[in-house]
Amino acid sequence: MSQGPTFLSCPVCHAHAAEEVWLEEHWQLVRCTDCSLVYLSNPPSEEELKALYSFESGFHTQLVDDAASIEAADQAAQDHMR
């Protein structure tokens, strides 16, 4: 996984200043201090994405398809972004 709190410039306005919004083990979300975009400051490499989302990783077994589970996941995501 990507290491360390490396801030990439904002993909929209290219500003370099950002503040941490959320950090979990390997991933860091930051908010651009100029345009307020929230983005992943340390995105995974192509190899990491392949490992995370490959059939062998079992990612597909974690997917939900019932409306109640989807709504609950959506609400949880919204709660974390406040």
Keywords for this structure?
single chain; 82 residues; alpha+beta; 2 domains; 2 helices; 20% strand; disordered N terminus
Q: Mind sketching the topology for me?
A:
Layout lengths: L17 E7 L2 E6 L5 E3 L5 H8 L13 H14 L2
What's a quick, concise take on this entry?
The chain is α+β, with helices and mostly antiparallel strands. The chain is 27% helix and 20% strand. It folds into two domains: 1-43; 46-82, no CATH class.
Report on the structure:
- The protein has 82 residues and is of the alpha+beta class.
- The chain is built from two helices and three strands, in the order E-E-E-H-H.
- The chain has helices at residues 46-53, 67-80, and strands at residues 18-24, 27-32, 38-40.
- It has a three-stranded antiparallel sheet, with no helix packed on it.
- Strand 2 and strand 3 (38-40) form a beta hairpin.
- Mean pLDDT is 83; it is low at 1-5.
In helices, the fraction of residues equals 25-40%
Mean pLDDT: 83
What is the 3D shape?
flat
Distance between the termini: 26 Å
- Largest sheet entry: 3 strands, antiparallel
Number of domains: 2
Q: Based on helices, strands and strand pairing, what is the structural class?
A: alpha+beta
Strand order of the largest sheet: 1-2-3
Helix count, DSSP H or I runs of 4 or more residues? 2
Work out the strand percent: 15-25%
